[in-house]
TrEMBL record:
Active site: 80
Gene Ontology MF term list: nucleotide binding; oxidoreductase activity, acting on the CH-NH2 group of donors, NAD or NADP as acceptor
UniProt protein name: Valine dehydrogenase
Residues at which NAD(+) binds: 180-185
Family: Belongs to the Glu/Leu/Phe/Val dehydrogenases family.
Glutamate/phenylalanine/leucine/valine/L-tryptophan dehydrogenase C-terminal domain sequence ranges: 144-350
CDD domains named among the record's database cross-references: NAD_bind_Leu_Phe_Val_DH
Pfam families the UniProt entry points to: ELFV_dehydrog, ELFV_dehydrog_N
Organism: Amycolatopsis taiwanensis
Keywords: NAD, Nucleotide-binding, Oxidoreductase
GO BP of this protein: amino acid metabolic process
Amino acid sequence: MTEVVFGRGSGHEQVVFCQDAQTGLKAIIAIYSTALGPALGGTRFYPYQAESEALDDVLALAKGMAYKNALAGLDLGGGKAVIIGDPETTKTEALLRAYGRFVQSLGGRYITACDVGTYVADMDVVARETRFVTGRSAANGGAGDSSVLTAFGVFQGMRACAEHRWGTPDLAGRRVGVAGVGKVGRILVGHLLDAGAEVVVCDVSAAAIERTLAAHPEVTVVDDVIGQQLDIFAPCALGGVLTDQTVPRLRAEIVCGAANNQLAHPDIDKLLSERGVLYAPDYLVNAGGVIQVSDELHGFDFERAKQRASSIFDTTKAVFALAGAEGVPPATAADRLAERRMSEVGRLRSILLP
C-alpha cells in the first residue's frame, strides 16, 4: 500500500494506492475529510483506461461524499474507493478479500459500501476481512441494496424541485427523462410511474432496457434523452453528462438525478441558471443510499432510514431558499451549507474529551 500526500490544492486528507499482484487487485482509496467522523463512501469497480483516470475519479467522488454526508446531516466524513478492472472478468473472492484487508489496514478512517460494479454480495465478501463495511445483505445484518433509498431520495428531491418551480410537488402528467436505468434508475422509474408521470428512458445497456421494459412496459425508450422535450431530466448513469456541449441541447426545466458529479466543471451550474434550468445538486438528492447504509452503524432499521431519507425534500427546499437569498446557483448554495456544517460541527472535535 502506497500513501500519497497531495499539495495544498487537493484538500484530501489521505490517498492510498493498494496493489496485490497475486489476486490482480489495483485499487485507490481516497479520504477527503474526517471532520464529521469516519469517511464513508462506496467502492467503484470499473475498467478505467489508465490509473490517472481512476485517480481523477476517486478524488472527485471522495470530495462529493464528504459534502453529501455533511448535507444529509450524518456524523460521517467523506471518502471513496475505486478498483481498476472489469468486474465481469476480474472480480474474484480472493481479490475482494485482499481489498478488504487494505480497508481494515486504515483502522476505521474509511468505511466502504457498494457503488458502480459492486453489490451487496461483494460487501459480504469484503466484510470477511474488515469490519469497516456497510451495504451488506440482510442475512448478515446489513441494509441490503442501497439503491432502494437512493431512488427514493431522488424522487423526494424531484418533488421539492416541482414545488419550487411549479408551486406543487405533484408530478402527475409531467414528462421525465431518465438517462440510465441500472440499479437506481429502474427503481426511480417505478416511483415516477406510481406518481402519474410520463417516463422516457435511455441506456447504453440493452439488458438494462429489457429489464426496465419487463417491469414497466409503459415507458418510452429513446436513443438520447437529453435532447427530448421534458419537464425533468434525470441523469442516473455515470457523471459528467452536463457539459458546455450538452447543456445547450437540454430541453427541460429541471435537472434532478442520481448520477454523481453531473457537472463537467463548476461553471456549468451558472450556465444552467442562465438558461433558466433549475438544478438540484446531485450529492443533495442522491444521499438516500448513504443514509440507508449508514444506518447499519446503529443497527439497521429500514423505516428509520426511510424517514431520514424523506428529509431530502426539506433539505432541497432549504438549498433553493438559500440560493435565492444569496443570489447564487443551487450548487453553490449546497456547497455553502455543507461546508458550514463541516466547519462548525467539525470544530467541536478540538474540544478534548477525557
